[in-house]
Amino acid sequence: MDVSDFRKVKDGCFIFSVTSSDDEFHFNFDKNEYQIEEKDKIFKYSNNNNFFFLVNNGNAVNFLHNAVMGDFIHLVRTEMLFAPMNLNSFSANKINYVNEDLRKRIADLWLDMHNPY
Fold first, then answer.
1. Which of 57, 64, 58 minimizes the C-alpha distance to 79?
2. Residue 20: C-alpha distances to residues 11, 60, 110 (Å)
3. What is the pLDDT, as a whole number, of residue 59?
4. pLDDT mean by block of 10 residues, the chain; 117 residues
5. Which of 9, 12, 30, 63 could form a disulfide linkage to 52, CB 3.0–4.6 angstroms apart?
6. Residue in 24, 61, 22, 21 with CA at minimum distance from that of residue 40
7. What is the pLDDT of residue 74?
């Protein structure tokens, strides 16, 4: 995404990335084009034309808790597949998580697949 794409983002949209921000976004616009406010790792970009939110300022959301490497990445990827199911209960300015029961089920399945004993 570059500045022309950011200008087209609908007001209030949340943008999540699953890789490094420099791979996905080109912040090549004038620093005065958007005001940036940060609260709890959610960055609000706003100007007279539109406003949107970049979670973790465009960096991968799993980087919020350090990068996940190895086979453990499958836990994160599975949660990412299920996370959109929770968007119907989304409230503004809040990061939603996969519920604890689903996380446990995902972890149990992962352990069944990767536990050699």
1. 64
2. 24, 6, 25
3. 82
4. 88 84 74 87 92 87 65 79 69 70 89 70
5. 9
6. 61
7. 79
Residues 6+ apart with CB under 8 A from 19: 60
CB 19 within 8 A of CB 60: yes
Cα dihedral 101, 102, 107, 113 in deg (nearest 10): 130
CA distance 63 to 91: 22
CA Rg, the chain, in Å? 17
Q: What is d(CA 39, CA 56) in angstroms, rounded to the nearest whole number?
A: 10
| Residues facing residue 51 across a β-bridge | 46
Hey, what are 28's tokens?
């090549």
Distance CA 87, CA 7 (A): 24
Q: Hey, what are 73's tokens?
A: 């990445």
β-bridge mates for residue 13, sequence order: 52
Burial class (CB in 10 A: 0-12, 13-18, 19+), 80: middle
Question: Which is nearest to 96 in space by CA: 72, 79, 109?
Answer: 79
Q: Which single residue is written with the structure tokens 């996905």?
A: 24
Q: Which two tokens stand for residue 50?
A: 């539109």
